[in-house]
Amino acid sequence: MLLSSSAEIVVVVVVVEVVVAVIIKLVVAVIIIILISVVEVVVVALVVVVVAVVEVVVVVVVVVVVVVVVMVVVLVVLI
User: Fold this and answer.
1) What is the DSSP letter of 67?
2) Is the Cβ–Cβ distance between 3 and 9 less than 8 Å?
3) What residues contact residue 3 under an 8 Å CB cut-off, 6+ apart?
4) What is its main location (predicted)?
5) How far apart are CA 38 and CA 55, in angstroms?
6) Which contacts of 31-38 are long-range, i.e. CB under 8 A and separated by 24 or more positions?
7) Pseudo-torsion of CA 75, 76, 78, 79, nearest 10°?
């Protein structure tokens, strides 16, 4: 393609700049969407882990309390 005037050069440069700017914006948008998805997955995973840990702790505490109460009742009955 032969460019005969500086006006054509300017048009080509402007078109290339616009295309590059649009591509950069699309890439940034895709990266942001991917990051948001990753953050959502990590947050959900953390919430699930925290809930599981809390459930385990609650179960352990309940078991310990029940065992202690049973031991106290047995001791009181024996004494």
Assistant:
1) H
2) yes
3) 9, 12
4) membrane
5) 26
6) none
7) 110
Rounded to whole angstroms, the Cα distance separating 13 from 4 reads 14
Q: What is the pLDDT of residue 51?
A: 93
> pLDDT class for 4, splitting at 50, 70, 90?
low
Domain housing 51: 1-79
Q: How far apart are CA 57 and CA 45, in angstroms?
A: 18
Stated pTM of the model: 0.49
Place of tokens 């309940």: 62
DSSP calls for 9-37: HHHHHHHHHHHHHHHHHHHHHHHHHHHHH
